Amino acid sequence: MPIYLLGLRLNTPTEEEAVKARASLADILAAFAPTERPILMLTAVDRWTDGPEGMRNFFFLDKGVFLGEVIKTLETAGLEAHAALFREGRALLDWDHSAPGENHSPLSNGNGDIVDPVVGARLDDLSRRYNALPSLIEVAAQRLSDSTELSSMYESLRSEASDDLKLEFLASGLMNCLASPERPTNLLHSLAELPPAYTRLIAIYLFVAELENGSMHQFFYNDSGALAPDIVEVLKSMGLVVQANAVQSGIDGFPVPYPRDLKTRREFMGLQNSEFDETLSGLSDMIDYGALRDAWLKDARQTGILPL
């Protein structure tokens, strides 16, 4: 559904940015029929809270600005158990989400990392209880299928969806199924249990996401960097030799064996000079995004994993 693509990357937004974000959300919803809006909001909330640490991430990252809208949506939809957990989170943190960026500093470093262990543990408990409830995407899907009007409308949209959108849907859905995609050890274990075609799909999905959000330097600095050696092999298997060489050049800048462990990798990067950082970032220029996307899509078609 369109709303899950809402591109409001704010990172501890100021009050002014938060106001603009909520206005943008209202404008987006206004473009849809009243019967669609609850479904769209449920899918959005599901997206904003996915993963084992969903409630922690929601409250401490940018989507927390929509706390009021989320609670209202859940209450109106009769999902009281879900709404109660968001209200509990609001009471726990005791801050005004009209300007979350001004409330993070005592408890968080502003990037979603909570420095107060008690608050972190409470939010982890909230996430555990939240994930034990029916998933909102399943609730939304059931309500959509129960509506003749919406079912007809969305079946038409599904049949006309581009292969690019289908691929994105498949990759994001797979990510939601992995145990803990933000932790490299669990991620590597989860990928090892997938069929090869799906492993390649997720590896490229993570790689592209890091590059589009930052650079090759960010890829190596973040959790997904644990997959660097695997991504080299995936790119080679797709015939993307130049891109594979770019990633390998990045790997060659690290100690042998390559440090898949995030803490070890970051400690090494922190000891390097600006030339190292610039060189790593500059490798992004070797990536042909069009060729990468085409090869990714071709592989999904050939292996028969692209949704119909």
From TrEMBL:
Pfam families registered for this protein in UniProt: DMP19
Domain of life: Bacteria
Residue ranges constituting the DNA mimic protein DMP19 C-terminal domain according to the UniProt record: 193-294
InterPro entries: DMP19_C (IPR025402)
Name listed for the protein in its UniProt record: DNA mimic protein DMP19 C-terminal domain-containing protein
Organism of this sequence: Rhizobium herbae
Lineage: Bacteria, Pseudomonadati, Pseudomonadota, Alphaproteobacteria, Hyphomicrobiales
